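Lab meeting, item 3. Inverse folding demo.
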C-alpha cells in the first residue's frame, strides 16, 4: 500500500518520516556512495524543505515503511536541474507543469527481493505504480528522474522503461542516468500487467488529503 504525505505534514507523520530518512541514508550514502548529508543516521536535503509529495510503501500488517519516493514539480527547484545538470546537454533543462520529478526512490534491505515468479519486488512494483497513479490524478504527461544503472533494468522489468535523456555518467559508485517515464492509462496498464498488481495501490484517505482539487 502506498501512503501519501505532503512535506507540510512531516511533523504529523514524524514516525514515518524518520524511518524514510534512515532508509534513504542506507541507500544513497552507504550503497550508492553519493555525496549526501547524513545526520543522526538520516539523509535529508534542501528539496525536502520544498513541500514535496512523498510516496511511502507501508507493510499493511506491521505499518512499517519499506520504501519511498519523492515528487516535486519541475517548474521549481529540483535535483536534475540544480544538482545533476551535467546529465543533460549544455543549456538544456526539463521544466513543464505537466512533468514532475521523482527522486530518492529507495527501499529497506530485503524489500528489493522479488516475489516468486516476479522480476521485481512488491515494494518496487507498488512505488512505480503509485507514481504513475499520482501522475494521472495530477494531470501529468511524464515523470523525470535521475537513477543508477540497476534501476534501468528494474524499470524495464516493471513495464515502465525509461526514455534516456542526455548522457549517462558515473556518480559515486555507479553509472547514473536521467530519464523520462510516460504517465498515461496505457502506461499504468503496462505496469500492472508486468507486475501482477490489480487495482489502485494508493491509500484512499491519503489521496483525498494530499491531492484534493
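The presenter then showed the designed sequence:
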Amino acid at each position: 500500500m502506498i501512503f501519501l504525505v505532503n512535506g507540510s505534514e512531516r511533523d504529523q507523520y514524524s514516525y514515518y518520516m524518520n524511518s524514510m530518512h534512515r532508509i534513504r541514508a542506507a541507500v544513497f550514502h552507504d550503497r550508492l556512495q553519493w555525496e549526501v548529508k547524513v545526520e543522526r543516521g538520516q539523509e535529508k536535503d534542501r528539496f525536502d524543505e520544498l513541500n514535496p509529495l512523498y510516496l511511502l510503501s507501508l507493510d499493511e500488517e506491521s505499518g512499517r515503511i519499506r520504501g519511498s519516493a519523492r515528487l516535486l514539480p519541475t517548474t521549481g527547484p529540483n535535483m536534475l536541474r540544480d544538482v545533476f545538470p551535467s546529465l543533460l546537454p549544455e543549456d538544456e533543462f526539463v521544466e513543464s507543469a505537466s512533468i514532475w520529478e521523482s527522486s530518492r526512490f529507495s527501499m529497506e534491505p530485503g524489500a528489493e527481493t522479488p516475489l516468486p515468479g516476479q522480476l521485481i519486488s512488491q515494494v518496487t512494483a507498488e512505488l512505480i505504480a503509485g507514481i504513475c497513479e499520482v501522475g494521472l490524478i495530477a494531470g501529468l504527461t511524464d515523470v523525470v528522474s535521475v537513477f543508477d544503472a540497476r534501476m534501468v533494468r528494474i524499470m524495464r522489468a516493471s513495464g515502465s522503461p525509461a526514455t534516456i535523456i542526455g548522457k549517462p555518467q558515473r556518480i559515486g559508485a555507479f553509472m547514473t542516468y536521467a530519464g523520462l517515464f510516460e504517465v498515461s492509462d496505457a502506461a499504468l496498464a503496462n505496469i500492472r500487467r508486468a507486475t501482477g498488481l490489480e487495482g489502485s495501490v494508493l491509500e484512499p484517505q491519503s489521496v483525498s488529503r494530499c491531492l484534493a482539487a
